[in-house]
């Protein structure tokens, strides 16, 4: 079975830029994956995200989404129905004076009937926990609530894939927790997740990591594989999740665990197992 999204030898250069934002990128993403995109500022992460639904078109190479090429202008609308995007600042996605009308906006553009529109608004507002906010003004909500409104608006159009471009970076810890719980719920419901993030503790939730450096794919693999490569990640200017960093410090003190622990609870369980066996 072919990949849901595939990039074949893709290079992208912004107009009037001296260098390439991405170069020679070949990668595929399967349905129902959760892929986290990592890298320093300017590494090409957001450019990659925008290539996936045709907001950017490759300077060279091909981006295929569900069998459709982003270079085919007649297929762009269909591609954007497959791949939705949630950006860093949700206010950039608000177009209406109430949450209800904002959720309806994308559906109106799709030509969805009023009956189905109301069903979807109710369904997805409830799903992400904003049903009580439908008559509220989006701009008066908290950061976490705003992002959940943006997510509900995308979900109402029922895409197969959602790209989250630094969607939690402007949020406080409570808002970040709300949004991450929503993303986890969406993935459990079968939505393919692509999360562009600087937060390593968010990245560990993904099933696969793509690490970009200076416009190229530098590393790829499961979180436990990549986060075991401390020296290489340091060379690329990236930090480790707290639990993994602590594990490396323990190893320097002679305490070796059986596996890379991606969460604090996992680390505590490993330490408990280690010392209870003594």
From TrEMBL:
Protein name: Energy-coupling factor transporter ATPase
Main location, first listed in the record: membrane
CDD domains, alphabetized: ABC_cobalt_CbiO_domain1
ABC transporter domain: residues covered: 5-239
GO MF annotations in UniProt: ATP binding; ATP hydrolysis activity; ATPase-coupled transmembrane transporter activity; cobalt ion transmembrane transporter activity
Bilayer topology: Peripheral membrane protein
Cellular component GO terms, alphabetical: ATP-binding cassette (ABC) transporter complex
Compartments where located: Cell membrane
Similarity remark: Belongs to the ABC transporter superfamily.
PROSITE patterns: ABC_TRANSPORTER_1 (PS00211), ABC_TRANSPORTER_2 (PS50893)
InterPro entries xref list: AAA+_ATPase (IPR003593), ABC_transporter-like_ATP-bd (IPR003439), ABC_transporter-like_CS (IPR017871), ABC_transpr_CbiO/EcfA_su (IPR015856), ECF_ABC_transporter_ATP-bd (IPR050095), EcfA_1 (IPR030947), P-loop_NTPase (IPR027417)
UniProt KW keywords: ATP-binding, Cell membrane, Membrane, Nucleotide-binding, Translocase, Transport
Pfam families: ABC_tran
Domain of life: Bacteria
NCBIfam families: ECF_ATPase_1 (TIGR04520), PRK13648.1 (NF010167)
Keyword ATP-binding included in the entry's annotation: yes
């Amino acid at each position: 079975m072919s990949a849901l999204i595939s990039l074949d030898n893709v290079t992208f250069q912004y107009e009037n830029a001296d260098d390439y934002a991405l170069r020679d990128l070949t990668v595929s993403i399967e349905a129902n994956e959760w892929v986290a995109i990592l890298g320093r500022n300017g590494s090409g992460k957001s450019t990659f995200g925008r290539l996936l639904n045709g907001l950017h078109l490759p300077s060279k190479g091909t981006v295929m989404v569900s069998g459709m090429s982003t270079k085919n202008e007649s297929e762009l609308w269909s591609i954007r129905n497959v791949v939705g995007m949630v950006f860093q600042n949700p206010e950039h996605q608000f177009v209406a004076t109430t949450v209800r009308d904002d959720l309806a906006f994308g559906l109106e553009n799709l030509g969805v009937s009023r009956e189905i529109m109301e069903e979807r608004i109710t369904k997805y507002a409830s799903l992400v926990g904003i049903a009580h906010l439908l008559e509220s003004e989006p701009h008066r909500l908290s950061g976490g609530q705003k992002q959940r409104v943006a997510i509900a608006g995308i979900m109402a159009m029922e895409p197969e894939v959602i790209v989250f471009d630094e969607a939690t970076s402007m949020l406080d810890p409570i808002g970040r927790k709300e949004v991450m719980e929503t993303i986890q719920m969406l993935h459990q419901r079968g939505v393919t997740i692509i999360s562009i993030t600087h937060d390593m503790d968010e990245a560990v939730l993904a099933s696969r990591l793509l690490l970009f450096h200076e416009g190229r794919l530098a590393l790829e693999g499961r979180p436990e594989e990549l986060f075991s490569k401390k020296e290489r990640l340091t060379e690329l200017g990236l930090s480790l999740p707290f639990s993994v960093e602590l594990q490396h410090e323990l190893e320097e003190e002679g305490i070796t665990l059986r596996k890379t622990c991606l969460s604090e609870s996992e680390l505590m369980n490993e330490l408990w197992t280690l010392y209870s066996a003594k």
